[in-house]
Write a structure and sequence with these properties.
6 strands; six-stranded mixed beta sheet; alpha+beta; 152 residues; 29% helix; globular; 5 helices; Nuclear Transport Factor 2, Chain: A
């Protein structure tokens, strides 16, 4: 296993997941590679670079008040890790032009991490965006021309 991978991977369940969704750019700066790539199931293209990834993940902190991450599962093998977690919080920020509803949300998320030189080089996250939008009161027309998922 490459040097530094063990310590970074050990931080995946708690420190890193909390930092992702709570705007803790300082923590993320320590664990993300300079050229990290984030693939979010809801975005058509990956986000590349530490600053761009930190900015994208800060959107979740702006969106949810009192957000918490509840880690369900973490698997580590070699220089890769997989995690399942639940993100919970109260809707406080606008999303897709919709004003905050104050609704409580809970979204199950799966993430796959690849490490290089002890830092996260690639991250892929998957979640049911339609379920999130419904919980936030955002109209969803899955697959239709006005769907927030398809970008139409």
């Amino acid at each position: 296993m490459p040097s530094g991978v063990d310590s970074a991977m050990a931080r995946v369940p708690s420190e890193i997941l909390d930092a992702f969704f709570h705007g803790q750019g300082d923590v993320l700066g320590d664990v993300l590679a300079d050229d990290v790539e984030l693939r979010d199931v809801t975005l058509p293209l990956p986000i590349t670079g530490r600053d761009a990834v930190v900015a994208r993940l800060a959107v979740y902190d702006d969106l949810l008040e009192g957000s918490q991450t509840e880690v369900q599962t973490v698997l580590v093998e070699g220089d890769r890790a997989a995690a399942e977690w639940i993100l919970r919080g109260r809707h406080r920020g606008s999303l897709l032009g919709e004003e905050p509803t104050g609704a409580e949300i809970a979204v199950s998320i799966a993430g796959f991490f690849e490490f290089e030189d002890g830092r996260i080089a690639r991250l892929r996250i998957y979640y049911d965006a339609a379920m999130l939008y419904r919980q936030l009161g955002v109209p969803v027309n899955v697959g239709g021309p006005a769907s927030p998922i398809t970008g139409g």
